[in-house]
Each structure stands twice: as structure tokens, then as C-alpha cells.
């Protein structure tokens, strides 16, 4: 558990934090968000003593961080930042193993742990163990950064805009994959972002900050339904019911393809891809990969999939595309450009009504 008790941080006459109290329960994700200069990154840095509070107390698992060696404390807390911070002269395996090495783990243990973590984050150890950071894409580097933060099995993670430097599709993929990891590992996470959609999607709780204070600390659902002040209401915006759809991934609500779609169904699906709305039965939902094949032939399938609705997108993304195209359903694709199912406007409408209750 992470706890801040009436914490303030001042730089001369400037107050960066003003009496902040905040609790992150064990195994949960709390996201700090607010306008630039509100104190969210300062809050994060107080937990691992990159900064020291002017007043108040910061506790980790019930113990004041001031009673701990700053070096030892930082080794016991995972830290993921926007710029990743991989050491360029070290291989991926060496980067992942750096904190276990500081704890005295031998080379064989570190190698095994790196292989386990690469598999956990969906990267092939045979391909990536001996790669260098310069050989990685932005999304791959971010995954390695997360793996490094998990390497010593630290129960607490601090994440400062960890997905802010990657493109929108990779960001959604990384968010979904990280939520999958969190469901398995149940780390205690303090997460900083400037992106409200990311906060709603990632957080069990959200702390909205302004001028060095926490102005509302609550679940995403309650913040959207019952903003505590005019500032919070303006910050979250007017389309609050639609914003709740960010918490749901398309892959969890798609209708899967049948085992062997008929030629007629495939043709109907192709019509949907070309922008014609669904008519008649759900048969038109089942599309064909033919619409993707031409694009994939001139480049990688992954690049082609960037223009498609994937299972990693949110239901809000799906709703936006459905309404823009005036369609009742859309095909859903894997990152490799293969259709895996369809998402329907009627299903999204039902979910919206359920979460509004």
C-alpha cells in the first residue's frame, strides 16, 4: 500500500503540493491526472524519494519512506517512465536483469527471469534477449521498460506517462496488455498521465489534481457520474457517458466469426467494409480478409491494421467509427490484418445503458 498523509512540497515561495492525502490500496491502480504543473509527477517522485516532502509523511506498506535508505527503497519499487531509459550499451536481457543483479542474483537466474518476462509481455526471447535498445521499436522498448520494472518482483510500481511516447494504436495495445498483466500480478501502482481516456481505462481509482491539491479521488465511474466541483466537471467534459466506454475493449464484446462463413456472408461482410450498413440478419456481420489483403501486399500486415478496428481498440473507438460511417456493425481485425469478428452498435448501446444505471 502507498499512503500520503497531508504531504506538501515547496520550492522557495512556490508550493508544488499543498496538503495532499492519498491512499493506493494493495493490488490496485491509482491514476493521478490534472493540468500541467498540478503536482502529479511531484507526487510520484516523493514515493521513491527522488524528492523529499517539505511537510507530511509518505508511507509504503505502513512504513515511512524516510526511515528507509533511499537506494534500497528504489530497488524495491519498480519505475517506468515515458522515455523508457533503457541503457543503450546493454542488451535487452542485461537491461531487464539490472535490478536483480544489484540484489545479487547470478547470471543464470537473471537470464531465466528475462526469458520469463519477455514471454509474459509477448516478445520472443530468442529474438529479443540479445537485441540492443537501438534495434527496438517504440512499443517494444516500452514493453522492455515494463519488464525491467517487474524483474525483481517488486510489489509496487511507479509509472510516469509510460505510454505517452508511442503512437495511438500501440498505446491502446500496450494499455490492454498491461491491464492483462495487472489482472495476473496485482501490483500496487501509482500511475501518472495527462490523458483522461488513459486514466479512465487504467485506473481502479483516479486522483484529479489542480494547483497542488487532490480535488477528487474516486472511481472512474463516480468521477464521471458525480464530479465533485465545477473544475472536475469541466476537466472531464460533457460526453461523460461516452467516456465510460473507454474502460471496455472491443475484443471483450465482439461477436466471433463462424467456423466457416459462407460465400454470401463473406460478400455481405465486404459490403460492410466498404461502408454500406447492415441489412437483414446478422450474416452481414461476417466479413472477409480480402479488403485487407491488397493493403498488406504493399506493406506489413501490422501497418495495414493501423487503419482498421482491432480488438485492442476501446468501445468508444468502435462507437465513433460506427457513427461516422452510419453503420450498424463493423468488422474487427487482429493486428496482423485478419478478421476475428464484428462489433455491433446495438451491443454498445446496451452496454452504455447498463453502465449509466
UniProtKB/TrEMBL annotation:
Q: Which PANTHER family match?
A: GLYCINE BETAINE UPTAKE SYSTEM ATP-BINDING PROTEIN YEHX, OSMOPROTECTANT IMPORT ATP-BINDING PROTEIN OSMV
Keyword Transmembrane assigned? no
Signal peptide coordinates: none
The protein, known as: ABC-type proline/glycine betaine transport system, ATPase component
Keywords on this record? ATP-binding, Nucleotide-binding, Transport
> What are the GO BP annotations of this UniProt entry?
quaternary ammonium group transport
UniProt domain ABC transporter: residue ranges = 2-236
Annotated family = Belongs to the ABC transporter superfamily.
- A molecular function GO annotation: ATP binding
Q: Which Pfam families match?
A: ABC_tran (PF00005)
Amino acid at each position: 500500500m502507498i499512503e500520503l498523509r497531508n504531504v506538501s512540497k515547496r520550492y522557495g515561495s512556490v508550493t508544488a503540493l499543498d496538503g495532499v492525502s492519498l491512499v493506493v490500496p494493495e493490488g490496485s491502480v491509482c491514476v493521478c491526472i490534472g493540468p500541467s504543473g498540478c503536482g502529479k509527477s511531484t507526487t510520484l517522485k516523493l514515493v521513491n524519494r527522488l524528492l523529499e516532502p517539505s511537510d507530511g509523511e509518505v508511507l509504503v506498506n505502513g512504513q515511512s519512506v524516510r526511515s528507509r535508505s533511499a537506494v534500497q527503497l528504489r530497488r524495491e519499487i519498480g519505475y517506468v517512465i515515458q522515455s523508457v531509459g533503457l541503457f543503450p550499451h546493454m542488451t535487452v536481457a542485461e537491461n531487464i536483469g539490472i535490478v536483480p543483479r544489484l540484489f545479487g542474483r547470478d547470471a543464470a537466474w537473471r537470464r531465466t527471469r528475462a526469458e520469463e518476462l519477455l514471454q509474459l509481455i509477448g516478445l520472443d526471447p530468442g529474438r529479443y534477449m540479445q537485441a540492443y535498445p537501438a534495434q527496438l521499436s517504440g512499443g517494444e522498448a516500452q514493453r522492455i521498460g515494463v519488464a525491467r520494472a517487474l524483474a525483481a518482483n517488486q510489489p509496487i510500481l511507479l509509472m510516469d506517462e509510460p505510454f505517452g511516447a508511442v503512437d495511438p494504436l500501440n498505446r491502446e495495445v500496450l494499455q490492454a496488455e498491461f491491464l492483462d498483466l495487472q489482472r495476473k500480478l496485482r501490483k500496487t501502482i501509482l500511475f501518472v498521465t495527462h490523458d483522461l481516456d488513459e486514466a479512465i481505462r487504467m485506473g481502479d481509482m483516479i486522483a484529479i489534481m489542480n494547483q497542488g491539491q487532490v480535488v477528487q479521488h474516486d472511481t472512474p465511474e463516480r468521477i464521471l457520474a458525480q464530479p465533485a466541483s465545477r473544475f472536475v466537471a469541466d476537466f472531464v467534459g460533457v460526453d461523460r457517458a461516452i467516456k465510460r466506454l473507454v474502460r471496455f475493449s472491443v475484443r471483450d464484446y465482439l461477436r466471433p466469426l463462424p467456423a466457416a462463413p459462407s460465400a454470401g456472408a463473406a460478400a455481405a461482410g465486404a459490403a460492410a467494409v466498404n461502408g454500406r450498413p447492415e441489412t437483414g440478419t446478422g450474416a452481414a456481420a461476417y466479413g472477409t480478409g480480402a479488403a485487407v489483403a491488397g493493403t498488406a501486399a504493399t506493406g506489413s500486415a501490422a501497418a495495414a491494421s493501423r487503419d482498421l478496428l482491432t480488438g485492442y481498440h476501446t468501445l468508444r473507438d468502435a462507437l465513433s467509427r460506427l457513427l461516422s460511417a452510419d453503420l450498424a456493425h463493423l468488422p474487427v481485425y487482429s493486428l496482423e490484418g485478419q478478421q476475428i469478428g464484428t462489433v455491433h452498435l446495438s451491443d454498445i448501446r446496451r452496454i452504455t445503458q447498463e453502465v449509466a444505471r
